[in-house]
Amino acid sequence: MRALHSAHVTVSSYLADGLPKVGINGNAPGKAAATDLLGALMFYGLISGLGCLLVSTIVFGLGRYFSHHGSAVAGRVGILAGLAVAILVGGASSLINWAFGLGATI
Q: Do residues 85 and 51 lie in contact, with contact meaning Cβ atoms separated by under 8 Å?
């Protein structure tokens, strides 16, 4: 029953079109655990991106050295993938906040 009382919707909080106005509840139960979990996932995402970047750099270098075109191409693709992982994981919070702000204007 406690969770039902955390969402306060009163008659005065209705919008002009009759829809309830719902905001972010900063005191949600499990907030600390969810924040810790997402922080850990971001950490492991960055570590995996770094591992991908390192392994792909080695594959690219060896493929170029031994004139193996397939390995060199796979290494280049892996380098781009590792960089993309780092960009997406590092910018995930900003992307979500941007999309949330965009959705709030609707």
A: no
Q: pLDDT, tens digit, for every residue of 60-90?
A: 999 999 999 999 999 999 999 999 999 999 9
Q: Is 20 helix (H, G, I), strand (E, B) or coil?
A: strand
Residues 6+ apart with CB under 8 A from 45: 85, 89
Q: Rounded to 5 degrees, what are φ and ψ at 39? A: -65, -40
Please, what is the angle between helix 31-65 and helix 69-90, to 10°?
Answer: 160
| Whole-prediction pTM | 0.70
**Tokens coding 33:** 């655990």
Whole-number Cα distances in Å, 24 to 14, 32, 42, 92: 15, 15, 23, 19
**d(Cα 81, Cα 45) in Å, to the nearest integer?**
12
Alpha-carbon distance of 66 to 2, in angstroms, equals 66
Return d(Cα 62, Cα 44) in angstroms, integer.
Answer: 27
